[in-house]
Design a protein that fits this description.
Elements lengths: L1 H25 L10 E2 L5 H18 L1 E16 L1 E14 L6 E11 L5 E8 L14
Antiparallel strand pairs: 1-2, 2-3, 3-4, 4-5
Length: 137
């Protein structure tokens, strides 16, 4: 009787351990470290990064750029944070009067000291898997 009870306890413990391990492996939405993760486009950090990028690029291009919408947002945890965004903007060149709509894919880096840097700005179609874009020159 004693060995039967010991065997029953061992099998129960083994079942519990294997069950916990299987459920841990079955989780599918655990983010991978260093990979981009989708973020709500209305998140305050996303909006702040988008506004910073538009202002920085307008200054660089010497054009008026108006943010119309943020259509996709992703973030990547690094030594700080990378925000990869898809923006709808209206660009008015300095010597023109007509605004041209553009779809832009950008990457903004926010350092640990909360300083923003526009690392890429490219006219690009937004897809489910946004590819990396060339750095801002």
């Amino acid at each position: 009787m004693k060995s039967y009870l010991q065997m029953l306890i061992v099998f129960a413990a083994l079942g519990l351990i294997l069950g916990c391990a299987a459920s841990g492996f079955a989780q599918t939405d655990v983010p991978m470290a260093g990979s981009y993760q989708n973020v709500d486009v209305s998140d305050s950090q996303i909006v702040e990064a988008a506004k910073f990028a538009v202002k920085a690029q307008a200054k660089k291009q010497k054009a008026k750029i108006k943010l119309s919408a943020i259509s996709k947002a992703e973030q990547q945890v690094v030594a700080g944070m990378n925000y990869r965004l898809c923006l709808q903007v209206q660009v008015t060149e300095k010597d023109k009067k007509t605004a041209v709509p553009q779809t832009i894919q950008i990457v903004v880096f926010r350092s640990l000291k909360q300083k923003y840097e526009l690392t890429s700005w490219a006219i690009a179609a937004c897809t489910d898997e946004m590819p990396p874009v060339a750095p801002v020159k």
